[in-house]
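User: I want to check something. If I give you two sequences, will you return the structure for each one separately, not as a complex?

Assistant: Yes, each is folded on its own. Here is the first sequence with its structure:
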Amino acid sequence: MARTHAREEIVGSSRELAAVVGPVTSFAYPHGYHSRRVRQEVRRAGLGSACAVAGGVASASDDPYAIPRIVVRAGTSAEALLKMLDVARRPPRPRPLRRTAWRSLRRAGIEPFVERWSGTARAGASR
């Protein structure tokens, strides 16, 4: 994604959300995908933090623009959430090959084709 396009997506989605819910101070990377350049754009947009999907629990030492989060779906029970939190507190395992391969493909520029094919929506901001 070009820098100007990323900036437009970040600022535009934050403004749209702020019009509905009030001040927006944090950003959620679509599908958790982010790069150093995108993190810089989130900072420049004046947002104080951003969440990624890293399958872990945040700590004070985490980059505030790459805060890990656990995906909790509407049907997730309290018991399942407790289990996810317990697993998230364990030392990290090596990245699965699938995730590493997908990141390599995104960096090679295939993401626009995948977004077009899958109908991925615009960048999302969160409150």
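And separately, the second sequence with its own structure:
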Amino acid sequence: MVGFGYKMVWVAVRAGEAEAIFDALGLSQPRTVDWPEGVRAVYQDHGAVALTPALPGADGTTWTLAIGQSLSTVDVCELSRRLDREVQRFGTHRVVEWHRLERVVSGTLVRVFEELQGVGYRGGYDAVRRYARGWRRDRSAAAPGDLAILP
């Protein structure tokens, strides 16, 4: 298995079917490749997305993973609603020390954690709210909406 990690975003769909995920993400022209080729493709082409077959989960269910840098802009709440499945997303970018984790169940965001050490920001939902209040007072700070953008 070829790993992936830095400067990457993955989306995991509980009991998801690759074809339905592919359609819900608005992707076109799927082709079958092996995992190493898929990982290479998403690092070389920032718009590419690779999907795994269904993988066994710890609780007896399966998970399908999609990886690709373009997944940072996907509305995971809408994706969860469209698929009627739990969706989780994790993104990382080592240069700015950005990490984000989201868990969505039935279209509702139930957990979020984001850390962006480059601007002194880190925390979960309460920290996001505190950061946003501070940003409103001091517009010189980075806008909260800019935190999830990957180069």
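Because they were folded independently, the notes below concern the second chain alone. Residues 8-141 form one domain. The chain has four helices and eight strands.
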